[in-house]
Amino acid sequence: MKYILKTILLLTFSISFSQSKSIDLRVEELLKKMTLEEKIGQLNQYTDDWNITGPLIVNPNKETDVKAGMLGSMLNVNGVERTRKYQELAMQSRLKIPLLFGFDVIHGYKTTFPIPLAEAASWDLSAMELSARIAATEAAASGIHWTFAPMVDIARDPRWGRVMEGAGEDTYLGTKIAYARVKGFQGKLGNLNSVMACAKHFAAYGAAVGGREYNSVDLSDRMLWEVYLPPFKAAVDAGAATFMNAFNDINGIPSTGNKYIQRDILKGKWNYKGFVVSDWGSIGEMYTHGYSKDGIEAAFSAITAGSDMDMESNTYRNTLAQLVNKKRISVALIDDAVKRILRKKFELGLFEDPFRFCNSERQKMALNNSEHTKAAREVAAKCVVLLKNEKNILPLSKETKTIAVIGPMVKPKRINHGFWAVNLKDVDSTYIVSQWEGLENKVGKNTKLLYAKGCDIEGDNKAGFQEAIDVANQSDVVLLSIGERYNMSGEAKSRSNIHLPGIQEELIKELQKTGKPIVVLINAGRPLVFNWTADNMPTIVYTWWLGSEAGNAIADVLFGDYNPSAKLPMTFPRAEGQIPIYYNHFNTGRPSINEEKLYKSSYIDLPNTPKFPFGFGLSYTTFNYSNLKLSKTKMKSNEKIEVSLDVTNTGKYEGEEIVQLYLQDKFASLIRPIKELKDFQKIKLAVGETKTITFVIDNEKLSFYNEKLEFKSEAGDFDLMIGASSEDIRLKSSFELLP
Ligand code: GLC
């Protein structure tokens, strides 16, 4: 048996080796036929012109360029017909090199899943992989080869609008999610339900000063390695086919022209074999940064730094040949970029059949089919965070007679997609289940739903208040759905004030006077500040933007058909003045314990603590943690400690709990955070059920980047904390790492 296994393994290896070897040979053969112009053409990417995602430079010669082999890729082209049209033009070029079609399929294609930050709140890696898998299936069925996702930027600043697109503030959670999403999008690259992933934005885009979009990033090398790079390394380990660099500079050098991160780290230390696409126009923007005095210098910096493809700036097209002719760069540098790109085209099977992703029948079968909508509904329910349920108003009874459904988010459909949804041309939004429709689908004929908008998201018009109060007075319970406009978060959507917009909180205060039980639903793409509501309303549910099945998923949670299990992937501040605020901070020499103020690291006008902490989320049931055991309390760096504990469902509903393991390295050559998430498990427990779960502490979990940037552990004492959130620590222990 062993012999047979060995033979199969050897055969499989040799087949895959010969395949990649044959691709390398085919790339070399093709490269030899290409002129310098044609090589530079492969490094060029333009957008189609109906779905613009950046400052557009209209290019009237797009089709001519494609026919002349002067384009290697296009973005924002989707649909079988449109991609086929451009691919047919590419087949008229001398060497018939197929185009790559890239698109921002960030959280679904037609079937739209919750925004990535909401999915991160599920802490459910398989759910996130499934979501990416379905997005890839629908995108690939629509002619797309490549998604510009996952965005893996760690972000500790909710003023930054793109927090909606990532996995939140924690490096460990973000690293696990990055890996899962790349695997989800790519599956087995070359399959007809897979697309190339693109880890973005390399690097540290989420650290923009002031949370202001595209702003500078200034951070130590150590912080870069410790906080911002690990999710990108996970993407490399997951086999991400491409990377996208970032708009921001890092310590004064724009990412696009930053040799250290692209050439030294990504393609050097990490030995990355995929290709790097610049973000929209970022090569040309190095002039605006004040880094490159003209296009030629920008192209020189970008190509030498390792930016392989030029998205939309037209710089490579206009300058690379000059750089070669003036012997400023060697053709070998261009060849390296071209080979990386051609290799992916071969891996996708586009040379065998450039139209293999253009199948109208497959497109029709894939888009928003029942299997996908069912998955979207289930994933969405897992993302809903129960922030408060003090009077157990939730779950609602299905026998409730009259429900008042109030707020500007109740009836609109498109808003539930949030930012970065795919705007499908000629597709109306009827397939999106609004929050109102979700309730209609859920309640029986004995339940009456009353509606009032109450107010707009923004503005100060109170004309709708009275109608809202009237329907509330006729009801047994009020559902109030408010929040920020769906495109108040996303790219170029930084907000200096992240309070609930408009007069929504005033509407809540007026409705509170009716004395009716009120459930507040908050829809947003980021943590918001809503202190009065948080202090005065007994039931609050954070629904983010949940996608095309939002209405059904929200109804499933509100009526208890799904017991909410999500936990916050970002800290919720009390005020913008606390930002950046994150759980894994340093202790300082004068920590403010129990809100002491005098000569303590604190604000005189606010507590240090957040409104809602990282890792927080409630359930309709309760869980008890007990019986914490460590297999040993002293370990050598080549050993491990087994940690076990019991979790019991002590409430009245079956539910899931996300058990979080935090460590604190008490003393080290560099100060360490007061706690760091080092593992988690999401478990389902029936009423009264107890499960024993185990974690393993190994040397990697104790390691950090020291002053020499060596990733190492240091002997000493460690505190171990098991939490239901970063602040709700249920069990504690400690152990020692021996020298
Ligand atoms: C945008 C975004 C990037 C996106 C690209 C293409 O500016 O920064 O995330 O993938 O352009 O739309």
What do you see in this structure?
With 739 residues, this protein is α/β, with parallel strands linked by helices. Among the domains are: 375-578, Rossmann fold (3-Layer(aba) Sandwich), CATH 3.40.50; 621-737, Immunoglobulins (Immunoglobulin-like, Sandwich), CATH 2.60.40. Helix content is 31%, strand content 18%. The protein has 22 helices and 26 strands. The strands form seven sheets. It has a six-stranded mixed β-sheet, sandwiched between helices. The longest helix has 32 residues, at 2-33. It starts with a helix and ends with a strand. Bound molecules: alpha-D-glucopyranose (GLC). The site of alpha-D-glucopyranose has 9 residues, from loops.
Number of E-type strands:
26
What small molecules are bound in this structure? alpha-D-glucopyranose
The whole-number mean of residue pLDDT values reads 96
**How large is the share of residues in beta strands?**
15-25%
* Percent in helix: 25-40%
The CATH architecture designation of the domain at 375-578 is 3-Layer(aba) Sandwich
Shape: globular
Topology:
Elements: H1 2-33, H2 36-42, E1 44-47, H3 62-67, E2 73-75, H4 80-90, E3 100-103, H5 116-120, H6 125-140, E4 146-147, H7 171-186, E5 198-202, H8 221-228, H9 230-237, E6 242-245, E7 249-250, E8 253-254, H10 259-269, E9 275-277, H11 285-288, H12 295-305, E10 310-311, H13 315-325, H14 331-347, H15 360-366, H16 370-381, E11 385-389, E12 402-406, H17 435-442, E13 448-452, H18 465-473, E14 477-483, H19 504-512, E15 518-523, H20 531-536, E16 539-542, H21 550-558, E17 623-630, E18 634-635, E19 641-649, E20 655-665, E21 676-685, E22 690-697, H22 699-702, E23 704-705, E24 711-712, E25 716-723, E26 729-737
Parallel strand pairs: 1-2, 1-10, 2-3, 3-4, 5-6, 6-9, 12-13, 12-14, 14-15, 15-16, 18-26
Antiparallel strand pairs: 7-8, 11-16, 17-19, 19-22, 20-21, 20-25, 23-24, 25-26
The site of alpha-D-glucopyranose has 9 residues, from loops.
